[in-house]
Specification:
The protein contains 7 helices and no strands. By secondary structure, it is mainly α. It has one domain. Helix 4 crosses helix 5. It starts with 6 loop residues before the first helix and ends with a helix.
Length: 104
């Protein structure tokens, strides 16, 4: 069976590779899809990257298809909020929750 990857699926793969390497993605569309364009400072950029590093490294309940749906439906902030609000909160989770209005 041949599976066609959607553009969003490719963006998720890009973000995952970057986060697992402790790097920012270098693709503008990926940066927008993962809300980096809403950051106001270098510190915000670093904190948002930290949130994604935690997502891809530490959250076994993360599901790629749910993340794709959240991005495609412009509900990524809500997806991240739901994922992080029920778990032990890291510094990055707390920062994201405190700044949620910027990312919605």
């Amino acid at each position: 069976m041949h599976i066609v990857k959607t553009m969003t699926s490719k963006l998720v793969d890009m973000m995952s590779r970057a986060a697992l390497g402790d790097e920012f993605p270098d693709d503008e569309q990926c940066l927008r899809a993962f809300l980096f364009d809403r950051c106001r400072s270098e510190e915000d950029l670093t904190n948002l990257l930290g949130l994604y590093i935690g997502l891809f490294k530490l959250h076994p309940e993360y599901k790629k298809d749910e993340l794709i749906l959240a991005i495609d439906s412009r509900q990524l902030a809500r997806y991240l909020l739901a994922l992080h609000s029920d778990l032990h909160q890291s510094f990055y989770s707390k920062w994201f929750i405190q700044n949620i209005e910027r990312f919605e």
